[in-house]
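Table S2 (continued). Query chain:
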Amino acid sequence: MFDKVLIANRGEIAVRIARTCSRLGVDTVAVYSDVDAHAKHVEACDERVHLPGVASSETYLNVDALLAAARDTGAQAIHPGYGFLAENAGFAETVTESGLVWIGPPADAMRKVGDKISARRLAQEAGVPVLPGLTDSADDRKLIVDFGNEVGYPLAIKAAGGGGGRGLKVAHGSDEVVEAFDAARRESESYFGSSEVFVERYLEAPKHLEVQLLSLSESDSLWLGVRDCSLQRRHQKLVEETPPPLHRDLAPLMGEAAVALAKACGYVNAGTAEFLVDSDGSFYFLEVNARLQVEHTVTEEVLGIDLVECQLKVAAGESLGLSQADLSEGGRGRGGHSIECRINAENPARDFVPTPGLITRYAEPAGSGVRVDSGYAEGDEVPSAYDSLVAKLVVTADDRERAIARMLIALDEMMLEGISTTIPAHLLLLVDESFVEGTHTTRTVETDGVLNPLSEPGHGVLIIDGHPVKLWHDGMAPSAAAAVGATGSGRLTAPMQGTILKVLVEEGDEVAAGDPLMVLEAMKMETTIAAPKDGTVTLIGVERGGTTGAGQVLVVVE
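Corresponding output:
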């Protein structure tokens, strides 16, 4: 086992990795940006190295700085967590070439599955079902329209280097292809440094199921059960659980497909193969996440294993003593049912817009079957520069019904004040009939009228654009005006720190209320800045590609 590991990440996953390392007697090195100097993950590690700056490009994506930190502290290996450089094959290769150990899959395997076009071909060759699509890179809008006219709409236009819903846009007809194509390419360039996209049929309301992989070597891969991750907003997961409430008969087939994919690309270490299940029970390959997943916790709780420990041992060349029989139903796992809710700093009343800020009160639930993986504490600031995930609330019980009941109690007990969070949405979604019955899909959260109001004393429910918000009758309830934005002033300011992806107007242009003016990316979400009223653009305060701070004037319409 290693003596010292550098954790090239932040937040709850860095804390999570540090805790396992500590239990195994492995020293850890934290890296931190200017705004993370007092962050929880910094305190959780044995040593710490400052990465000057705030922007990810200056800090957690700064390869030279990360390697220097590992070298200067004497770390033997680097664990990337998830996000940032976790699926960057070039970084993995550089780490290995520098004499350090990369705690993740080989760079060559990452390249094969990281590029979605290559992964699609790989799946086809391995006999794994894929959706009808254009296997080659799509750079011709007419080609996409012709394909849509042939196989039918809707179509998914997806970043070749994407993942986690980034760079994915949907065209419901030929008239939407151009806008979806341009948006997918722009987002792909922003997140992944490449504008290459591909196209395939889009399933309107599928189940999103995924298989946890653990490859001990290129020829020895295991599958560790199936998770249901269907409750999502904007293709980003809100709730995950294992085992899945429906389609459990597909688990062995999906497990075998995942193992075939792993062997086909020479995969080693932990990873996840994701699939979509149509209403007729057919499943199709979606993508491979060549890293530890956010929702790995529920698999750990049901199987009684530590996946980070498994990652460390595989990377160190140590035996795990696991076989497929150990991991199947009836094996040596704990069993039961586990559910995870991602607690994000987001406001469900405003289409889940990120809400960075100061946490004024924070208290975690506890008790049997309750686990909290968190990157923050009371008094911490959730910065706008990074992901909005604050904590992961995980509960495990003997069966799904008891797990849901336990999660509702835990959500109610969790105190997180000072910022808006997704907890109100979780409280509603978990009692919705479709979730209780297990029939929920990737469209459940974004479907109008699907949620039933909670009838509790002192509470009410507001549905805005199909999204649920639990309102506390103490004057804190959001107003409709707040949800859609004020319309009186022509002076528009940035709601948070972000990057300007696109400027759509010039000074002197005449605009109407609601016209898009620019596109702002913040906390991994695109926000279109629209004209608040009819008028003339008299000032543009930012440039494309520029970084803006909260409160900075973006545009003035008079």
